[in-house]
User: What shape does this take?
Amino acid sequence: LKNSKKIVNHIHIPLQSGCNEILKKMNRRYDMDEFIKRINEIRKIRPNIAITTDGIVGFPGETEENFNETVESIKKIINESRKRVVTYVNTTMLFTYWNIGKMIVEEQGGSSKAKYGDKLIAELSKQMTFDFGKGFDERNLRYMRQFYLSFPNWNTVCSELSWSHYRTLMRVEEQHIRNFYMEESIKCNWS
Assistant: This one.
């Protein structure tokens, strides 16, 4: 599954019902915990795979309580997926900003004081804002540049932290103190 070039980046897994009692009446060999476990296993192997499912409403003997259990199970799946999407988007944004910062630093030859460097950021800001809209003003491009300088190794960037976290952390000059605040932010779920 992980390395196959023949598998489309989509899989359909029939849920049938989000109620364990109904799944048992349907003679299914799984319950909701097993269903969610399988989805999570697939996502670990293929994080970007699209997963669809279906459910049956009105199975003979299904009560209002059984139906409500299905609704709650589906809500749980949706909420877990939303969390995953937010994490994926955040990581992608951090990676993008880190790479933009890296390119600026490399283009400036590592110097922040060069006249060319100031002109580069100003011109880049105009073009990026024209092409992509808000978020690429000179100040934010300087933040991206500083992001790369503060975290020159991408592997030290934690996806559990947001761009706002990193903008604050970049103000901390000493590496060990910055690392302490990174760990505390993650451990204590600081926003």
